[in-house]
Amino acid sequence: MAGSTLPATGSAAAAAAADPQRLTVDLSASEGPVMRGANGALYGLSDDGVPSDAALAPLKITSISQKPEGGAQHPNGDALTVSKSFFRNGGGEINVMMQDIYAKWPYEDLGIDDYLPKVDKIVKEVSADPNGDRFVYIPFNEPDQIWYKLDVADQAQYEINRDRFFRDWKTVYQRIRAIDPHARIAGPNEAAYHTRLITDFLAFAQRENVLPQIMTWHELGSGSLRDFQGHYDNYRSIERQLGIKPLKINIDEYANRRDLSVPGQLVQWVSMFERNKVFANQAYWDAAGNMDGNVVRSNIPNGGWWLFRWYAGLTGNTVKVTPPQANTVDTLQGLASLDTSRRQAQVILGGSAGDTDVVVRKVPRSLFGRTVTATVAEAAWSGYEGQHAAPRVLTRTKVRIADDGTVTVPLRGLHKMSAYRVVLTPGGTGTPTRPSVPWTASYEAEDAAITDGKVYTQGTVSNANGYAASGTKDVGSLNQPGSKVDFTVSVPKDGTYDLAILYGNQSGTPATQKLSVDGGEPVTVTYPSTENWTYRAKKDLTVRLSAGTHRLTLAKGATEVTLDRIDLTARTAEPAASYEATLADVSGKPSYDYSSSAGVGTGALVLRSGDKAVFDVYAPRDGYYRVVPRASAPVTLALHGQSVAAVPDRPLRLYLVAGNNRITATAKHTAVRALDVTGAGSTTGTLTYEGATATLAGGAKLVDSAYASAGSYIGWLGNSADSTAEFTVNAPTPGRYVLVVHYAHNDRRDNGHAYNTDIMSRTADITVGDGAPRTVTFKNTWGWDDYWTVGVPVDLKKGANKVTFGNAGAWAPNIDRIEVGRVVG
């Protein structure tokens, strides 16, 4: 059992800690504007709508890498197709992985004469796009290993291979420029950094006038966190020696499987790349469309998403951060920013367990005054497919700036897989509200009593492409009739506890276990499918426990489940979160008022006409929540395409979809401190229509299923203009509603990649009344019997509304049921 000790501020906590690590931030040492270059992903998008707009926009992605339109390497992720959602959500540029036009991996080597017509087609299509200037061509992928074998040790053979590559590079480069004279071209795009090749390549490319506009290579080694700085420094020295002006760098594949989704691992990579002001895209080891392990389903944040959301929230300039150890694998690292116009400093750190002092030096009194409010929050690891609520604020403390300009924020009991954010804002008058932090404890499955199961070791430094697991171990092979895991837990008092189970379910159908407390009557726990048994997800439920020690047993039910860890957290009230206005995304020219640190402690955002603040609000499930603006005057909130007037401190009942919801606040003139959101997703007032109530035509039919909510779903829908499902929705009032579709499908195409799961999305055309059909994308649900939801805003008239689903050209997803809720309940 590992108890959670909360980070704390104050001299008593500092004195109690034994030799804490020290992460030092120098606010006077600017490294230049925040670039956010390290937030990209290879195949981060799979389709228009996967990830959802609400999951994509907050991340402010600077670059992604995708395949050419129609490329045979994967069934989706086409650059032009996903560019629509990428650009409308503020995306920067798209790298076109041109060799992904080929089907095989490694790419079939059919010679340059076979490749050139493909190059022509790609460039013509991209350059004709209205956003053609926002694409980057990457002609070759990992030529050190594929086609050219540039990593051979034998020098003579290397030179033969090198010269062939250089001839082809020049040919393809000139071919691209002949079609698109202003094309940006990137390369050489090695699988690993090679000084020998880079030196030769730059000299050749400079001499032949085929120098790339962007330098790319991959950092995929288990030692990259140690080695990258040397690679970067060596590359820049070669540029200087050759008289080449510094090129933009994109490390367009980085990180191992064990790093992806893990905030404490990812912050080490991000801080390294941001410090050097290079762009970087996470590697594509598994499935497309989830930002490489950071978006659950289509719209739900996990811990990694929140880390990148924090990264996107940095403004101003980054400043120098000195970690306990530089250029070392699996250590405490961080990045920090200072925004003088907003009078905010932020520090994001993680990667190490234990105690840490964050020492912020040269805090300017001209910006902050004599005191600061230090706000500390945690983004924990929730698995690749595990939902993560808004990061919990652990402490809000007003701290006096020392005479030497230093502020020290002690953090105690950090978790290695978590990331932490420290925000400093001017203290002003008043006292911040102390956050309510519930008791919590974690228990590793490998430390429990195991019957008919086996402990496995997962992602480690020596097995970096193994999947992440809490404590690097989990318990699998729980496939015998008597298989079970007994956890001995201890809770401080009688009450209801949230139980979170980190698990894997590779069965392809919902799996079950029997949960019992102290040998009592068992209840069934149902686990949705996951990509595989090590692709971790999280199951949330509640248990009632009396104070003291208990035995929680998870025993085999239907099919097999792998167990990683359980977390117990005291439930003291309804789920609630307070979203600070001064940390929201803004447009216009709002001002920041720190005269009082009451409430959330970070002051107030002053909105006037033309200003906007966008809050990213998490909902654990589809349903109604109480939303309260903490403001000095009325504001207008916009959600799902509807605006509603909001009175300060008076709750609105708003419909939120599962996952992230972007709520925009505007006002004539008001000071907003926070947006408070409370609730667990009430369905009171929503309308539900089972599949059996729909009128089916053209081959669509009801299919019996034990996993569907009413025992059947609508299958065989689409693939013909005649195949439709029509629901009649009776709306009590006219207005804007959210249509929530409960669906499942498991379309796949195996392209023969040992490490990519080529799942496919389906689409449905949804028509309301006589309106135009709207195409909605439905991501693969990992199994035909696993039902997920997608929320679609629709306008309904009072009374009967026909809502029709179809797809004339392909199969639509199977539909279990629909729900309809008015946006303002």
Termini gap: 43 Å
Mean pLDDT: 96
Strand order of the largest sheet: 18-17-20-15-14-13-2-16-19
Radius of gyration: 27 Å
- Largest sheet geometry: 9 strands, mixed
Number of helices: 10
| Helix content, binned percent | 10-25%
Strand content: 35-45%
What gross morphology would you assign? globular
The chain-level structural class is mainly beta
Annotation, overall tally of beta strands: 53
Low-confidence spans: pLDDT under 50, at least 5 residues?
A: 1-17
Short structural description:
With 825 residues, the chain is mainly beta. It contains ten helices and 53 strands.
Description of the molecule:
The protein is mainly beta and 825 residues long. The chain has ten helices and 53 strands. The strands form eleven sheets. It has a nine-stranded mixed beta sheet with strand order 18-17-20-15-14-13-2-16-19. It has an eight-stranded parallel beta barrel with strand order 3-4-5-6-7-8-9-10. α4 runs parallel beside α5 and α6 packs parallel to α7.
